[in-house]
Amino acid sequence: MATDTEIADAQALVADRIDVLTLLEGSRLPKREIVDDLGYSRSTVNRAITQLADAGLVDDAPRGCQTTFVGSLLATQYRAYRETVTDIVRARDVLRVLPTEADLPATALRDAEVVTPEGPHPYDPYHAVEDVLDRPDADGDVRVYVPSFSNPRGLELARHLAQTVPLEIVFTDVLVAELTENRTEEVETLCEIDGFTGYRTAGGPRYTLIIADSESGTQGAIVTHTADRNLGGVIVTDDAAALRWMERRYAEIRAESEPLEPL
């Protein structure tokens, strides 16, 4: 059984020599070709191959060097880890407003477009959400979970959308109370539209979920909000794994909700 030291050494070796492992996954190569392909000195390649072979990650034979099964498994997982780190760092300005206990997984960030209100175009996040909502055609539908309206045009967008495609929205009880107090007529108008179905829930996360289905495919958006209800940013994705998580999370929220009664 591997010791903690051996595991730590293997982790450091994969991180340090991932380029060599990746190069040797496809075919067996002589060391001179490794030198040419990676641009390293002969001594650096010899040292790297010795380290990798001693760890069981590369097979060093007279006919050439090749990544072993174990080496390939570790290289694949390390590349996936680097991609995940990249996704998180790219989205950090949107995610930083979420509480520590937020249930948003790294899967939801995969290959996503990240839009923040910072910089010279503060309305870009609103445009990104509207682009997602405009995606469905006549055969599509939109599902939304929303704890807070960062966009003052939220109800207006919902009314317009419900007149075009089936729209389902799960509101939090807190948001329903706010709308009841301040925008009762607008909500009543929305509820009268045949294409709209409303629900309310006592729980739910602090981010908004949007799932827009169309004949050409599905697109999802995650909108974050600060504690004082300002916009944190938007994450837009059509990645299959991210969408599967969004579909599952929305279904969980929806299952814990109840129909929105007339205000």
Shape, per Cα inertia axes: elongated
CATH class of the largest domain: Alpha Beta
Helical residue percent?
40-55%
Largest sheet, strands/sense/barrel: 8 strands, mixed
Q: How much strand content do the residues show?
A: 15-25%
Total domain count: 2
Strand order in the sheet with the most strands: 3-9-8-7-4-5-6-10
Number of helices: 11
Order of helices and strands: HHHHEEHHEHEHEHHEEEEHE
Radius of gyration: 25 Å
In round numbers, the mean pLDDT is 92
The CATH topology of the largest domain is given as Endonuclease, Chain A
Termini separation comes to: 64 Å
Describe what is shown at a glance.
The protein has eleven helices and ten strands. It has 263 residues and is α+β, with helices and mostly antiparallel strands. The model has no long low-confidence stretch (mean pLDDT 92).
Question: Could you explain the architecture of this structure?
Answer:
This protein has 263 residues and is α+β, with helices and mostly antiparallel strands. The protein folds into 2 domains: 4-82, Winged helix-like DNA-binding domain superfamily/Winged helix DNA-binding domain (Arc Repressor Mutant, subunit A, Orthogonal Bundle); 101-259, Endonuclease, Chain A (2-Layer Sandwich), CATH 3.30.870. 46% of the residues lie in helices and 21% in strands. It has an 8-stranded mixed β-sheet, with helices on both faces. Strands 1-2 form a two-stranded antiparallel sheet. Helix 8 links the parallel strand 4 and strand 5. It is elongated.
